[in-house]
Write a structure and sequence with these properties.
Elements lengths: L1 H20 L3 E11 L5 E11 L7 E7 L1 E4 L2 E4 L2 E8 L2 E2 L2 E6 L2 E7 L8 E11 L3 E3 L3 E7 L12 E6 L6 E9 L8 E6 L2 E6 L8 E9 L8 H37 L19 H9 L6 H12 L3 E4 L6 E5 L11 H11 L4 E4 L5 H22 L4 H21 L9
Parallel strand pairs: 1-13
Antiparallel strand pairs: 1-2, 2-10, 3-9, 4-5, 6-7, 6-10, 8-9, 11-12, 12-17, 13-16, 14-17, 15-16, 18-19, 19-20
Helix pairs in contact: 2-7, 3-4, 3-6, 5-6
Length: about 425
Amino acid sequence: MMRIFGFLLAFAALTVAAPASAKERIDQFDVAVAVQPNGDVLVTETIDLTSEGDQIRHGIQRDLPRYYESGGDRLPFSYDIMRVERDGQREHYETHHDGNAFNIRIGDADTLVSDGPHRYVISYRVADQVRRFDRYDEVYWNATGNYWTFPIVSARAVITLPAGARVTQTNAYTGGQGQAGHDATSSQSGDTITFVATRPLEAGEGLTVAVGFEKGLIAPPSGARLGWLWWQRNGALTILLVSIGGLFWFLYRAFDRVGRDPVKGPVFPHYEAPAGYSPAATHYIFYRGLRENRALIATLMNLAVKGRFSIDASDKKVTKLTASSTKGSDAGLAAEDLVLERSIFAGQSMKSLGGSYDPEFTAAYTEFKAQLSRKYGSTYFRWNAGYVVVSVLITVGVVIWATNSASQWTGWHT
């Protein structure tokens, strides 16, 4: 009985202890930062961790800050990933942007990471990360980051300055984002300063270090770097101004090509339609359409004047149109005039207008209007919507390009 009780007690102890030992963690986080004479930094992160198949299944995700503040401006970090390894072997990785984070996703979606200890090594270069002040230069580096979702048991950061550096100050900060705890020690050996966290870091906590040293070791930014910084600070406004100028030029050229009216001649009264145009055509072009029944009346009067038919309006209620037997050739008559004439008479010699509703005359008038629209509508009145569409597409494209290429883009620019 006692043996059975002891077995159950041991099994219960193992069951309780198992979850505690299965907690995923970073056992050791070492960061080596080598400061270059041109202001770049070479960073090598060595991450020893324990995987239990919970959050670490296919690999890990290293989140680096995407932007930093300089002189009141938000500038992007310029990362160059040089090497990523797991357990001494090259490891697949991808980079992505997520808000203020530059993500390095390490691992293969088709490969599971085995449970137990693993070592990840990430090496990368970051351009121009020495902060230049009036009296000293400084390296300020968030060594571990604050995005880890599991704890860091031990953290260490080693900053190596160029030979002959004279350190003027050191600082270390621990805790979550925005916190400034001082649970870390620092020591110096020659040009190397080592920071060690004095307590484990919980999920979301990190270690940030800063080393100030006398000026003279780090070269000023190159012309290319200054140009890049200028573009990051002023690129959004530059793109905006250039795009506005280009858009105005495009619209002006479009207006000059298809929107400008011809020079108007002297104004004097005309008693006949312009040569080559019927009264209905003149009416349609002038009004950009038809106004009441004026074009119809003008066409009937024009055909009567040319002897195509006679008009008897002696009866105030009914107007009689009688086709002429000697109307002659159709030459000189506009197509819309002939359409109206043929549709009205339709093989008859007389047509009465007025009184009851006449579907035949309505059909004739409808065809007359359609003929005018086909002949003078799209030819004379183009909306030129294609130019507007192109200008809108150019504007949208420029805004998208500007927001992606300039870090200082704000809602004001839009």
